[in-house]
Design brief:
single chain, alpha/beta, 33% helix
Protein backbone atom coordinates (compact mmCIF):
# COMPACT_ATOMS: atom_id res chain seq x y z
CA UNK A 1 0.00 0.00 0.00
CA UNK A 2 1.54 3.34 -1.03
CA UNK A 3 1.37 6.58 0.95
CA UNK A 4 -1.43 8.05 -1.16
CA UNK A 5 -3.62 5.01 -0.54
CA UNK A 6 -2.87 5.22 3.18
CA UNK A 7 -3.88 8.89 3.29
CA UNK A 8 -7.06 8.16 1.33
CA UNK A 9 -8.03 5.38 3.73
CA UNK A 10 -7.40 7.54 6.81
CA UNK A 11 -9.48 10.34 5.33
CA UNK A 12 -12.26 7.91 4.43
CA UNK A 13 -12.37 6.42 7.94
CA UNK A 14 -13.08 9.80 9.48
CA UNK A 15 -15.20 9.98 12.63
CA UNK A 16 -17.80 7.43 13.59
CA UNK A 17 -21.44 8.44 13.55
CA UNK A 18 -23.20 8.61 16.91
CA UNK A 19 -26.68 7.63 15.75
CA UNK A 20 -27.36 4.00 14.91
CA UNK A 21 -29.80 2.24 12.62
CA UNK A 22 -30.74 -0.84 14.66
CA UNK A 23 -32.11 -3.84 12.78
CA UNK A 24 -33.59 -6.84 14.58
CA UNK A 25 -36.52 -9.21 14.22
CA UNK A 26 -38.61 -6.70 16.18
CA UNK A 27 -37.79 -3.63 14.10
CA UNK A 28 -37.45 -5.05 10.61
CA UNK A 29 -41.12 -4.80 9.58
CA UNK A 30 -41.35 -1.06 10.22
CA UNK A 31 -38.05 -0.47 8.41
CA UNK A 32 -39.24 -2.54 5.43
CA UNK A 33 -42.42 -0.51 5.19
CA UNK A 34 -40.66 2.85 5.49
CA UNK A 35 -37.87 2.11 3.01
CA UNK A 36 -39.63 -0.33 0.67
CA UNK A 37 -37.18 -3.13 1.33
CA UNK A 38 -38.17 -6.31 -0.51
CA UNK A 39 -38.07 -9.85 0.81
CA UNK A 40 -39.71 -11.86 3.57
CA UNK A 41 -36.49 -12.86 5.32
CA UNK A 42 -36.62 -16.48 4.18
CA UNK A 43 -33.75 -18.29 2.46
CA UNK A 44 -35.45 -17.99 -0.93
CA UNK A 45 -36.54 -14.37 -0.37
CA UNK A 46 -33.92 -12.59 1.75
CA UNK A 47 -34.58 -9.05 2.87
CA UNK A 48 -32.78 -6.81 0.39
CA UNK A 49 -31.12 -3.77 1.96
CA UNK A 50 -29.80 -1.60 -0.85
CA UNK A 51 -31.12 1.78 0.31
CA UNK A 52 -30.80 3.43 3.73
CA UNK A 53 -32.60 6.63 2.75
CA UNK A 54 -32.00 9.23 5.43
CA UNK A 55 -31.12 6.66 8.10
CA UNK A 56 -27.74 6.95 9.87
CA UNK A 57 -24.94 5.08 8.12
CA UNK A 58 -24.05 3.39 11.40
CA UNK A 59 -25.93 0.07 11.09
CA UNK A 60 -26.30 -2.65 13.73
CA UNK A 61 -27.96 -6.02 13.09
CA UNK A 62 -28.38 -8.18 16.18
CA UNK A 63 -30.13 -11.29 17.50
CA UNK A 64 -31.64 -12.25 14.17
CA UNK A 65 -31.93 -15.50 12.20
CA UNK A 66 -33.63 -13.93 9.17
CA UNK A 67 -31.89 -13.87 5.80
CA UNK A 68 -30.51 -10.48 4.71
CA UNK A 69 -28.76 -9.33 1.55
CA UNK A 70 -26.92 -6.02 2.01
CA UNK A 71 -25.55 -4.70 -1.28
CA UNK A 72 -24.28 -1.64 -3.13
CA UNK A 73 -24.02 0.58 -0.04
CA UNK A 74 -21.40 2.80 1.55
CA UNK A 75 -21.62 2.33 5.33
CA UNK A 76 -19.66 4.16 8.02
CA UNK A 77 -20.00 1.34 10.55
CA UNK A 78 -21.65 -2.06 10.21
CA UNK A 79 -22.03 -4.27 13.27
CA UNK A 80 -23.42 -7.82 13.16
CA UNK A 81 -23.82 -9.50 16.55
CA UNK A 82 -25.35 -12.89 17.33
CA UNK A 83 -26.84 -13.14 13.85
CA UNK A 84 -26.71 -15.55 10.94
CA UNK A 85 -27.67 -15.80 7.27
CA UNK A 86 -26.38 -12.37 6.22
CA UNK A 87 -24.87 -11.71 2.79
CA UNK A 88 -22.91 -8.48 2.22
CA UNK A 89 -21.80 -7.71 -1.33
CA UNK A 90 -20.42 -4.80 -3.33
CA UNK A 91 -20.32 -2.53 -0.26
CA UNK A 92 -17.75 -0.06 1.03
CA UNK A 93 -17.50 -0.32 4.82
CA UNK A 94 -15.36 1.93 6.99
CA UNK A 95 -15.70 -0.08 10.21
CA UNK A 96 -16.94 -3.69 10.22
CA UNK A 97 -17.57 -5.76 13.34
CA UNK A 98 -18.81 -9.35 13.18
CA UNK A 99 -19.24 -10.97 16.57
CA UNK A 100 -20.83 -14.28 17.52
CA UNK A 101 -22.19 -14.89 14.00
CA UNK A 102 -22.67 -17.87 11.72
CA UNK A 103 -23.27 -18.35 7.99
CA UNK A 104 -22.09 -14.90 6.94
CA UNK A 105 -21.13 -14.30 3.30
CA UNK A 106 -19.02 -11.31 2.26
CA UNK A 107 -18.33 -10.90 -1.46
CA UNK A 108 -16.51 -8.11 -3.31
CA UNK A 109 -16.50 -5.52 -0.50
CA UNK A 110 -14.02 -2.80 0.43
CA UNK A 111 -13.33 -2.94 4.17
CA UNK A 112 -11.03 -0.42 5.84
CA UNK A 113 -11.21 -1.55 9.44
CA UNK A 114 -12.63 -4.75 10.90
CA UNK A 115 -13.03 -6.90 13.98
CA UNK A 116 -14.24 -10.48 13.54
CA UNK A 117 -14.60 -12.63 16.66
CA UNK A 118 -16.43 -15.81 17.69
CA UNK A 119 -17.54 -16.35 14.09
CA UNK A 120 -17.50 -19.62 12.12
CA UNK A 121 -19.17 -21.19 9.10
CA UNK A 122 -18.77 -17.98 7.08
CA UNK A 123 -17.38 -17.23 3.62
CA UNK A 124 -15.20 -14.28 2.54
CA UNK A 125 -14.59 -13.96 -1.22
CA UNK A 126 -12.92 -11.26 -3.36
CA UNK A 127 -12.87 -8.61 -0.64
CA UNK A 128 -10.44 -5.69 -0.59
CA UNK A 129 -9.19 -5.23 2.96
CA UNK A 130 -6.84 -2.70 4.53
CA UNK A 131 -5.94 -4.99 7.47
CA UNK A 132 -5.40 -8.25 5.61
CA UNK A 133 -2.87 -9.54 8.17
CA UNK A 134 -5.57 -9.47 10.88
CA UNK A 135 -8.37 -10.78 8.72
CA UNK A 136 -8.20 -14.42 9.86
CA UNK A 137 -7.35 -13.72 13.50
CA UNK A 138 -10.69 -14.90 14.84
CA UNK A 139 -10.80 -15.09 18.64
CA UNK A 140 -12.25 -18.61 18.73
CA UNK A 141 -9.04 -19.95 17.14
CA UNK A 142 -6.58 -18.52 19.65
CA UNK A 143 -8.65 -18.73 22.81
CA UNK A 144 -8.91 -22.50 23.31
CA UNK A 145 -9.10 -22.24 27.10
CA UNK A 146 -11.03 -19.03 27.76
CA UNK A 147 -11.17 -19.49 31.55
CA UNK A 148 -7.42 -19.98 31.80
CA UNK A 149 -6.67 -16.99 29.59
CA UNK A 150 -9.06 -14.78 31.54
CA UNK A 151 -7.23 -15.54 34.79
CA UNK A 152 -4.16 -13.70 33.53
CA UNK A 153 -6.23 -10.82 32.16
CA UNK A 154 -5.32 -7.53 33.96
CA UNK A 155 -9.02 -6.75 34.52
CA UNK A 156 -9.55 -10.17 36.10
CA UNK A 157 -6.55 -9.69 38.39
CA UNK A 158 -7.80 -6.23 39.40
CA UNK A 159 -11.28 -7.58 40.20
CA UNK A 160 -9.81 -10.40 42.30
CA UNK A 161 -7.76 -7.89 44.27
CA UNK A 162 -10.81 -5.69 44.88
CA UNK A 163 -12.91 -8.68 45.96
CA UNK A 164 -10.29 -9.85 48.48
CA UNK A 165 -9.79 -6.31 49.77
CA UNK A 166 -13.55 -5.80 50.19
CA UNK A 167 -14.07 -8.95 52.23
CA UNK A 168 -10.98 -8.30 54.35
CA UNK A 169 -12.20 -4.83 55.25
CA UNK A 170 -14.84 -6.33 57.60
CA UNK A 171 -17.29 -3.49 57.12
CA UNK A 172 -20.65 -3.01 55.42
CA UNK A 173 -19.16 -2.93 51.94
CA UNK A 174 -19.19 -6.75 51.66
CA UNK A 175 -22.11 -6.57 49.20
CA UNK A 176 -19.81 -4.76 46.76
CA UNK A 177 -17.66 -7.86 46.85
CA UNK A 178 -20.64 -9.94 45.78
CA UNK A 179 -21.26 -7.60 42.84
CA UNK A 180 -17.61 -7.89 41.81
CA UNK A 181 -17.80 -11.70 42.05
CA UNK A 182 -20.81 -11.63 39.72
CA UNK A 183 -18.92 -9.43 37.26
CA UNK A 184 -15.89 -11.74 37.41
CA UNK A 185 -18.11 -14.76 36.70
CA UNK A 186 -19.75 -12.97 33.77
CA UNK A 187 -16.43 -12.04 32.17
CA UNK A 188 -15.30 -15.67 32.23
CA UNK A 189 -18.57 -17.39 31.40
CA UNK A 190 -19.52 -15.07 28.53
CA UNK A 191 -16.35 -15.96 26.63
CA UNK A 192 -16.87 -19.68 27.30
CA UNK A 193 -20.51 -19.51 26.14
CA UNK A 194 -19.60 -17.76 22.88
CA UNK A 195 -17.02 -20.40 22.00
CA UNK A 196 -19.34 -23.23 23.04
CA UNK A 197 -22.07 -21.92 20.73
CA UNK A 198 -19.91 -22.09 17.59
CA UNK A 199 -17.47 -24.91 18.33
CA UNK A 200 -19.34 -27.47 16.20
CA UNK A 201 -19.64 -25.13 13.20
CA UNK A 202 -17.33 -25.49 10.14
CA UNK A 203 -14.35 -23.19 9.77
CA UNK A 204 -14.54 -19.97 7.79
CA UNK A 205 -13.63 -19.98 4.10
CA UNK A 206 -11.33 -17.29 2.63
CA UNK A 207 -10.92 -16.95 -1.16
CA UNK A 208 -9.09 -14.24 -3.17
CA UNK A 209 -9.16 -11.54 -0.50
CA UNK A 210 -6.51 -8.88 -1.16
CA UNK A 211 -4.98 -5.92 0.63
CA UNK A 212 -5.64 -2.36 -0.47
Amino acid sequence: MNQNQLNDNKKFLGRRKSKITKISDKTIESLKNNLNWDGSGSKLEPILIDNLGSLPLNVKIYKSSLYYNIKNLTIDELTCRNTQNITIENCTIKHLEIRGCYNMTLVNNKILKHKITFTKGSTFIDNKIAQIEKFKQNLYVTQVNPIGRQVTNPLTCCLCFLIISTFLSWDYSWFIGLILIGLLFYLNYSVYAKIKRIQDKPDNIYVNNVQI
